[in-house]
Design brief:
The two termini are 34 Å apart. The chain is of the alpha/beta class and 328 residues long. It has helices at residues 2-20, 86-95, 126-131, 134-149, 166-177, 194-204, 209-222, 236-242, 247-253, 271-283, 309-323; strands spanning 25-28, 34-40, 46-52, 61-67, 78-79, 82-83, 100-104, 154-164, 183-187, 230-231, 234-235, 257-263, 289-293. The protein has one domain (23-193, 245-323): Alpha/Beta hydrolase fold, catalytic domain (Rossmann fold).
């Protein structure tokens, strides 16, 4: 009976999502094998997403949803007059037509926006600073998934959301928000609440975590909705939303199959966070795939590798895990 109720609830939610999303309009993306779609989300805001071109039109394939890390640049930028393929392009190459790659613009980001410093949001569009929160970002991705699954050539039976760094916690949140997500992966995403990672980072730089982290966090709590005040390069509004949860908390609530990857030489998010994640999930008897890569940095590259060789290899393993039973 419980299984039947859960199935019915998911079906009802899917129908509601389908009924509230308007049809998407599509455009080319330079010479890249993606199309750009613009649709209106459930909250009335327009969302922009990109879907890789179907390689075998007669065979629908599932979605792999890419969630990037910190920053306010577009998924595609122009470099020297040529369109960059981004990491969604790497995912697409690794998939070899077995899946279609979905990448979504963050709220407040416009097509081809190029911001050189991901760690400094003060120069981002005012719309981004006002709109970018964990809840809004995850809801935008969930809407994009629903819109993409209504397009021809998409198999809706399974969906993977994969995020790196900041995108790791977002991927976990989306897996809880969207009932169609069956698999979720966090790469270099840490585990505990971000305050832990910020304190570990400051200590690794020889700085006082009490002064550099917890004092700033006290200021955030005094004005949590401010989009003009900044801690650690991002707005108070962004931090107050992300600090309400963690990769661990979202993973423990997730209905999806889970995959986690972290490098022991990650200088941005200490491997200690990954170890805490694994211990917490083990204690709660929550199954997942855990990949601890000796010597890999935040981008999951080894010292002997050129960017993005390490990350590309990880993409391959995660995609094979997801696609293993359909890649025939």
């Amino acid at each position: 009976m419980l299984a039947m109720l859960k199935t019915c609830s998911i079906l009802v939610l899917n129908l509601l999502l389908c009924s509230t999303l308007a049809a998407a309009e599509d455009y080319p993306v330079g010479n890249q094998p993606f199309r750009r779609y613009v649709a209106k989300g459930r909250d009335g805001h327009y969302i922009t997403f990109y879907l890789s071109i179907q390689q075998v039109p007669s065979r629908p394939v599932p979605l792999i949803v890419w969630v990037q890390g910190t920053g306010c640049s577009s998924q595609f930028v122009s470099l020297g007059g040529r369109m960059s393929r981004g990491l969604q392009g790497v995912l697409n190459s690794v998939a070899h037509g077995r899946a279609r790659i979905l990448a979504v613009e963050k709220p407040g980001v416009e097509y081809l926006d190029d911001h050189p410093d991901d760690g400094d949001a003060s120069a981002c569009r005012p719309e981004f600073r006002a709109e970018f929160t964990l809840d809004r970002w995850a809801a935008t991705i969930a809407d994009a998934i629903q819109a993409a699954q209504n397009l021809p050539g998409v198999d809706p039976s399974k969906t993977l959301v994969i995020g790196i760094s900041e995108g790791g916690i977002v991927a976990m949140r989306v897996s809880n928000l969207s009932p169609v997500v069956t698999h979720a992966a966090s790469l270099s995403g840490g585990g505990p609440v971000y305050l832990f990672h910020m304190a570990e980072f400051m200590r690794s730089k020889g700085l006082d975590a009490e002064k550099e982290v917890y004092a700033c966090w006290s200021d955030v709590l005094k004005d949590p909705e401010s989009d003009t005040k900044f801690c650690w390069g991002q707005t108070y509004r962004q931090w107050s939303s992300f600090m309400k949860t963690s990769v661990i908390a979202e993973a423990l609530k997730s209905h999806a199959l889970l995959y986690f990857v972290h490098g022991t030489a990650d200088a941005q998010q200490s491997i200690a966070g990954f170890d805490v994640l694994r211990a917490e999930l083990a204690a709660k008897q929550r199954d997942a795939v855990f990949e601890r890569i000796d010597g890999a940095d935040h981008a999951l590259d080894l010292p002997s590798q050129n960017v993005p060789e390490g990350l590309e290899a990880v993409f391959g393993r995660v995609e094979n895990w997801f696609l293993g039973d359909v890649a025939k």
